[in-house]
């Protein structure tokens, strides 16, 4: 199994970065994982800004030359792991800009003329590891699970990815957030996960 980790946090001293390290470490001990690649969107200086004009059309985004390497990474990966904080009830704008550009028509899905498109990323699986300041049940009780609905239904299911796992950790700015326990949980998951 090939695994692509998409890390989205500007600070390498953050809890998100600690989660990234546990994903990598756990994966090294998993014989089912053949190779791991990490895409650090901030370090990469990925440009999240969409530009459409007379020469750059949205319908051509699937073949945009500047995004070719990122398309190759997504095509190569069997499992895609997203590591990011939750800010204002959703992933960071940097990650959303990546999603806007990479999950494009004729690459991630194909319009069929029907109600739903044909997902072109079938067979892949996704893990989302996110952390937030608010309590764990805040997204469910206050936001109607908007984050998970956005990621699972509006994005991954739409492009054909049906196997989606969430680790959504709350109270992460609290001294009672049980950080070590949660880091160990991520490490243990990636030591044993299969497709």
The main sheet comes to: 5 strands, parallel
Query: How much is the average pLDDT?
Result: 89
The neighbouring-strand order within the major sheet is: 2-1-3-6-7
**Poorly predicted spans:** none
Helix content range = 25-40%
Tell how many strands the DSSP assignment holds: 7
Indicate the proportion of strand residues.
Answer: 15-25%
Structural class: alpha/beta
- Radius of gyration of CA atoms, rounded to a whole number: 17 Å
Number of helices: 6
Basic shape: globular
| Cα-to-Cα separation, first versus last residue | 7 Å
Instruction: Please trace the helix and strand order, writing H or E for each element.
Output: EHEHEHEEEHHEH
Provide an overview of this structure.
- 33% of the residues lie in helices and 19% in strands.
- It has six helices and seven strands.
- The chain has a five-stranded parallel β-sheet, with helices on both faces. The protein has a two-stranded antiparallel ribbon with strand order 4-5.
- The mean pLDDT is 89.
């Amino acid at each position: 199994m090939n695994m692509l980790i998409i890390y989205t946090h500007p600070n390498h001293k953050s809890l998100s970065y600690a989660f990234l390290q546990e994903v990598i470490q756990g994966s090294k001990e998993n014989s089912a994982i053949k190779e791991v690649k990490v895409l650090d969107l901030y370090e990469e200086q990925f440009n999240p800004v969409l530009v459409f004009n007379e020469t750059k059309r949205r319908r051509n985004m699937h073949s945009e030359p500047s995004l070719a390497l990122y398309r190759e990474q997504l095509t190569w990966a069997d499992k895609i792991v997203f590591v990011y904080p939750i800010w204002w009830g959703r992933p960071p704008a940097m990650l959303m800009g990546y999603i806007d550009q990479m999950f494009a028509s004729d690459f991630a899905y194909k319009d069929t003329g029907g109600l739903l498109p044909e997902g072109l990323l079938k067979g892949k699986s996704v893990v989302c590891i996110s952390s937030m300041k608010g309590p764990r049940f805040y997204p469910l009780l206050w936001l109607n699970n908007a984050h998970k609905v956005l990621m699972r239904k509006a994005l991954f299911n739409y492009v054909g990815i049906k196997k989606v796992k969430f680790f959504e950790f709350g109270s992460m700015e609290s001294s009672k957030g049980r950080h070590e326990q949660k880091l160990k949980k991520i490490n243990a998951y990636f030591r044993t996960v299969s497709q």
